[in-house]
Amino acid sequence: MSKLSTLGEFGLIEEIKTRFTGAPLPAGWHGIGDDCAVIPKDANASWLYSTDFLLAGVHFLSDDMPPRACGHKALAVNLSDIAAMGGTARAALLSIALPHDMTTEWAEAFMQGFHELALKENITLLGGDTTKSRHDVAISVTVIGEAENTNIKYRSGARVGDIIAVTRALGASAAGLQSIIKKEKNKDGIDAHYWPQPEMQIGKFLGTQKAVHAMMDISDGLAQDLRHILNASDCGAVLNIPDNLIHPAATLDQALSGGEDYALLFTADAATFDQLEKAAQDELGRTLVPIGKITANKGECEIMYQSQKVTLPKEGFDHFRGMR
Ligand code: ADP
Ligand code: MG
Fold first, then answer.
1. Residue 230's pLDDT is what?
2. Rounded to the nearest whole angstrom, what is the distance from the C-alpha of residue 35 to the centroid of ligand 1?
3. 3-state class of 292 per DSSP?
4. H-type helices in the chain, by residue range?
5. Is the pTM here over 0.85, yes or no?
6. How many CB atoms lie within 10 A of CB 272?
7. Is residue 247 within 8 Å of residue 188, measured between CB atoms?
8. What is the pLDDT of residue 60?
9. Average pLDDT, the chain
10. Probe ligand 1: pick from 13, 49, 261, max atoms within 8 Å of CB?
11. Average pLDDT over residues 119-128
12. How far is the CA of 183 from the centre of ligand 1 (A)?
C-alpha cells in the first residue's frame, strides 16, 4: 500500500482529473485546473464556481482562532478564487459540521463573521447543510460568481515576455501563524492570518484589463502557486524579488513560500505595464508589485533576491506532505 504523501495533493488532483477526461466538457465549460470552474451563462458571460474547506486542526487552531474570524475566513478564502478569475461574487452555499459540545456562542459568532463579509461583498446565502461532527469543526463553502467572458483570466494565459506581478506584499499570514503558535505579539501578521482580505475590487479591475493575460490567487505560497501558472501556460519564470514584496511583518522565506496570503498573482503585457500600474493607482489607489518575467524556459523558475540566487527550503503547502 502506498501512502497519499507519495502522491501528494496535486498528484491526487491530477489522478481525479485524468479519470474524468473521457467525458469532454461542453463548449465554454472549464473544469479542474483553475481557481474556479466556468459554466456559460449567456452568449457573453459565465458563472464561476469554487469550493474550499476550512477544517479545525488543519486550516485553523480552534483553541486560538476567534469564531467570528473563522466565519470571515471560511467565506474570504472562497471569494478570493472568484477575484482570481476577474469575477464578481454573487452567492454562497455553507455546510457546517460541529461537535455536539460546541457552544451556541461559537456558532453565533461564526455566523456573525460570515454574515458581515457577505453583507460587505453583497453575497446571498443560497443554502447549505448542517450536521454534527464526531471530531472537530468542518466548514465547506461554495461560492458562485459571474464575469463577462472577455474578462475571465485563466492560469493558462501567460505569454513569454510578460511581467509577473502581485497585488500586495506577501508573507504576513505565515508570520502571523508562527506568532500564534509561539504565543508572540504580531498584530499585523495575526490579523492577516485570521482576517484575510480577498482582492475583490482589484481582481475585477484586472479582469477588465486586456494587458492582463493570466491570474490566480496565492493560497499555497507564491513559489508553489506560480508553478501552476507556469505549468498551465507551458513557460518558465525569472523572479527578481523587490523588498516591497516582503511584508514588514514577514521574512523572505515567508513571502515566497508562506501561504494563505490571498493576494493576486498575475502576468501582464510588458510593453503596457506602466499604463496598467498607473490605472491601478489612479482608479483604485493600489500599487502593483512587479516581481519578474515569464520566460520560454518551460517549468524553470529562477528566483533572485539582492542579486543572489534563492534556493527554497520548501515550496509552499501540500496537504498530504505538510510543509516540504
Ligand atoms: P485553489 O487553491 O485555487 O482552491 P486547488 O489547488 O485547491 O485550488 O485546486 C486546484 C484545482 O483542482 C481546482 O480547479 C479545483 O477545483 C480542483 N480540485 C481540487 N480538489 C478536487 C477534487 N477533490 N475533485 C475535483 N477537483 C478538485
Ligand atoms: Mg485559488
1. 97
2. 7
3. strand
4. 4-19, 67-84, 104-120, 172-182, 187-194, 200-208, 222-233, 252-257, 273-284
5. yes
6. 14
7. yes
8. 78
9. 93
10. 13
11. 97
12. 32
Is the predicted pLDDT of residue 168 greater than 90, yes or no?
yes
For residue 220, the ligand closest to its alpha carbon is 1
Q: What spacing in Å lies between the alpha carbon of 288 and ligand 2's midpoint?
A: 19
pLDDT digits (tens, 9 = 90+) for 185-197: 999 999 999 999 9
Least confident of 17-21, 197-201, 241-245, 302-306: 17-21
pLDDT tens per residue across span 1-13:
677 777 788 888 8
C-alpha cell at position 31: 473544469
Residue of 286, 268, 270 whose CA lies nearest to 278: 286
Atom 23 of ligand 1, nearest CA residue: 13
Q: In what order do the strands lie in the sheet with 264-268?
A: 212-217, 264-268, 163-166, 289-295, 236-241, 301-305, 308-309
> Identity (one letter) of the amino acid at 162?
D
Report how far residue 178's alpha carbon sits from residue 251's, in angstroms, rounded to the nearest whole number. Answer: 11
Q: Classify 239 in phi/psi space as left (phi over 0), alpha (psi -120 to 50) or beta.
A: beta
3-state secondary structure (DSSP) of residue 11? helix
- For ligand 1, atom 7, name the residue with the nearest CA: 52
